């Protein structure tokens, strides 16, 4: 694959807007390890090589357990994730596949007791933002270094 377009250079105002979303995420109450798990899982679902590479590396640098990262794609069966993390991952997958799932009530029932209303909004912003980054990276063929 060859890169198609440097979207940072071609759309600096759009990238500034994406940066504003990232700044909000950086200051929200969601714990940082959870943020990286969500970013990585959405990127896996979307098949974004650049973002999978980036967020796996970021999670490792932040002290995430390599075993948890290795089993993130099968988190439903792996015993290494808390109820809160499982709820966030279910929400991530439902939102990432929104055209197919329409975010089922069962997923809402899983998320609601684990997060405050503000955290649910922030989690939704996080999932939406990583999905947007995935779409930029995939569409314009951004490759891991």
List keywords for this structure.
globular, 145 residues, AhpD-like, single chain, mainly alpha, 9 helices
Q: How would you describe the overall organization of this protein?
A:
With 145 residues, this protein is an all-alpha fold. The protein has one domain: AhpD-like (Up-down Bundle), CATH 1.20.1290. The protein is 70% helix and 0% strand. The chain has 9 helices and no strands. Helix 3 packs antiparallel against helix 4 and helix 6 packs antiparallel against helix 8. The chain is globular and about 40 Å long. It starts with 6 loop residues before the first helix and ends in a 6-residue tail after the last helix.
Summarize the structure.
The protein is an all-alpha fold. The chain has nine helices and no strands.
CATH homologous superfamily heading: AhpD-like
The main sheet comes to:
none
Low-confidence stretches are none
What would the average pLDDT be, to the nearest integer?
97
Write the layout of secondary structure elements.
Blueprint: H1 7-10, H2 12-27, H3 32-46, H4 49-61, H5 66-70, H6 83-96, H7 98-101, H8 105-111, H9 117-139
Helix pairs in contact: 2-9, 3-4, 3-6, 3-9, 6-8, 6-9
């Amino acid at each position: 694959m060859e890169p198609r377009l440097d979207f940072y250079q071609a759309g600096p105002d759009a990238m500034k807007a994406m940066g504003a979303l990232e700044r909000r995420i950086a200051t929200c109450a969601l714990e940082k390890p959870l943020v990286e798990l969500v970013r990585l899982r959405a990127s896996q679902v979307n098949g974004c090589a650049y973002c999978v590479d980036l967020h796996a590396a970021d999670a490792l640098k932040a002290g995430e357990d390599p075993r948890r990262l290795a089993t993130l794609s099968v988190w439903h069966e792996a015993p290494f994730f808390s109820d809160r993390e499982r709820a966030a991952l279910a929400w991530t997958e439902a939102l990432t596949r929104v055209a197919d799932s329409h975010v089922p009530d069962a997923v809402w029932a899983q998320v609601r007791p684990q997060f405050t209303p503000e955290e649910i909004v922030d989690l939704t912003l996080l999932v939406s933002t990583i999905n947007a980054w995935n779409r930029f990276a995939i569409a314009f063929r951004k490759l891991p270094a």
